[in-house]
Amino acid sequence: MSSPLVIRNLTSRPIEVKRCEYHGIAPSLSQGGFTNITQNVTSLFRNATSPAAPQVVEPTESFVHEDVSIRIDPFKSLTTEIRPQSANETLHLIFETEGEQHRLETPTPTSNSTTLKPLADNPRFNYTAVHLAEHCHLTLYSSANLSSWMRFFKDDTPLSALSIPGTHNSPTCHRALPSVRCQATSPPEQLDNGVRFFDIRVQPEAPLDPTNDRLILVHGVFPISLTGNKYLRDLLHEVYAFLDRNPTETVIMSLKREGTGNATDAQLSRILRDHYAADSNRWFTAPRIPYLGEARGKIVLLRRFALEDGLKQEWGGAGWGIDAENWADNTPNATCPSGDVCVQDFYEVLETVNIEKKIQYSQEHLERAAKCVCSLPAQDQLATPPPKQPFFINFLTASNFWKVGCWPEKIAAKLNPAIVDFLCRKHHESADQAESAGDGSTGIVVCDWVGHKGNWDLVRCIVGMNAKLEMREHRL
Predict the structure, then answer these.
(1) Region 152-160: what's the mean pLDDT?
(2) Is the pLDDT of residue 211 over 90?
(3) pLDDT surpasses 70 at 14
(4) Strands 391-395 and 341-344
(5) pTM
(6) I need a labelling partner for 153 at 20 to 30 A (CA). Which of 23, 109, 169, 407 fits?
(7) Which of 76-94 are b and which e, b meaning 16 or more Cβ less than 10 Å from the residue's Cβ?
(8) Which has the closest alpha carbon to 54: 412, 456, 448?
(9) How far is CA 16 from CA 58, 432, 435, in A?
(10) How does pLDDT run across 421-438, given as a tens digit for each residue?
(11) How far apart are CA 194 and CA 188, in angstroms?
């Protein structure tokens, strides 16, 4: 007998299964009647859907159905009596929230998520389901419009409280040398699909020429494209265009100097200040983590470089940009001296067997973020800096140039599904028993190769983990 289906509700409202519909080859009622039918749940949980989570099509006429009442409370898991078995049948489930019904239908065989179909016009709620067939596990998230998901949060939300999808070496989507390319999609596509943290490495083209402000996009000592240099200025135009279309959003941009040549951090900081980040309408450069309201429509500067002496006097002598200068190298867990960043950035996966160690470190950092409980100030306190809660930055990235099995896309092919599985089944699972176990945040999760072949499930899961924080905000 197959394992029973576990349903986990990671939304802020109770959800109830109201109806099971069975489609396909009718079972023999002489073998135990409808009780046996309910144990032949099917290929809904055998395949997966498009990661863009398209809505499913209208079902065919069902041959039998059962009205049920299976309630799953917010942030709880429930083992049901539904036991997926037959490949000859498919199952459609009707879920209900506050009188509004949604149908989950047989997925199409491309990935793991699907959007539930509302059964009424103008629905108040929208849901995404992620099914993990191997574990007979179904997780329900509140669906978000990924191009503007930050609009649901109040202006006085500290940015460090949010679960934020990010990308590593974000613009490296071009044809490039092995281990240089880390992304399957362009930065604009990443932004449209929910990414709000960019990891950028640059090299000043002519650091001694004050008239030349060009910053080359690089990864290590290599340019990010074999067809010619790509530049930060063009990338910023794409980010500005996105923020103009979506003014409720912000983009945290980590900037670091890499590449060849003799440029210094001080020279990079001068170029950025004089030619890029001087516009306070476009950039947030205060040396602290902002509230969301302060950052909307702007790029938030997270600097991984030292400042020239003049910039050290900015903001009343506090410096310029969020300070991540002294970032521990190749670490499973470290906090920058500024206290603003707690990072997992273990990247030396020299053999494929070490990918499991990387998965372990990534999961442990997710749990560190999940235990935090954000202090939510009142709206009239917006001018007061938020409590000292760091950015938990969690790199799901690693590589070994000399081993094909450890190139970024190979590691991502193992690590990304493992983290989806962890988020759906285990992340913040203590909250199923303890109401005050933390907000369940993921922190900033920095990924390689998200969106590959349209698969944005990892991003959807990360954004979905904001549900408990959103519930707390709306109770105030």
Answers:
(1) 95
(2) no
(3) yes
(4) parallel
(5) 0.90
(6) 169
(7) bbbebebebebeebbbbbb
(8) 456
(9) 21, 17, 20
(10) 999 999 998 655 555 579
(11) 10
Please name the residues in contact with 451: beta carbons below 8 A apart, sequence gap of 6 or more: 51, 183, 184, 185, 189, 190, 193, 459
Query: If 0-12 CB within 10 Å is exposed, 13-18 middle and 19+ buried, where does residue 443 land?
Result: buried
C-alpha 314/C-alpha 322 separation (Å) is 12
Rounded distance between C-alpha atoms, residue 265 and residue 460, angstroms: 36
User: What digits encode the pLDDT tens for the residues 293-346?
Assistant: 999 999 999 999 999 999 999 999 999 999 999 999 999 999 999 999 999 999
Residue with tokens 């650091």: 207
User: Rounded to whole angstroms, how far apart are CA atoms 301 and 321?
Assistant: 5
> 14 or 42: whose pLDDT is higher?
14
How is the chain split among helix, strand and coil, in percent rounded to 5? 30, 25, 45
CA–CA dist 364, 291 (Å, integer): 26
| Extended beta strands in 73-214, E state | 76-79, 89-97, 100-104, 113-115, 117-118, 127-132, 137-142, 164-167, 197-204
CA separation for the pair 146, 152 (Å, rounded): 11
- Residue 450 contacts residue 184 (beta carbons within 8 Å): yes
Q: Which residue has the tokens 């001068």?
A: 270
Q: Residue 436: its pLDDT value, please?
A: 53
Residue 145: which H helix or E strand, with range?
none
Place of tokens 């939300």: 157
Q: What CA–CA distance (Å, rounded) separates 344 from 331?
A: 6
Going from the C-alpha of 262 to that of each of 217, 238, 324, the distances in angstroms are: 16, 29, 22
- Mean pLDDT, the chain, rounded, equals 88
First vs last Cα of the chain: how many Å apart? 47
Give the pLDDT mean for 387-415: 91
CB 418, CB 368: distance < 8 Å: no
Token readout for 295 is: 């950052």
Going by C-alpha positions, the residue among 371, 441, 451 that lies closest to residue 10 is 441
Q: Are β-strands 113-115 and 197-204 bridged in parallel, bridged antiparallel, or unpaired?
A: unpaired
3-state SS class at 242: helix
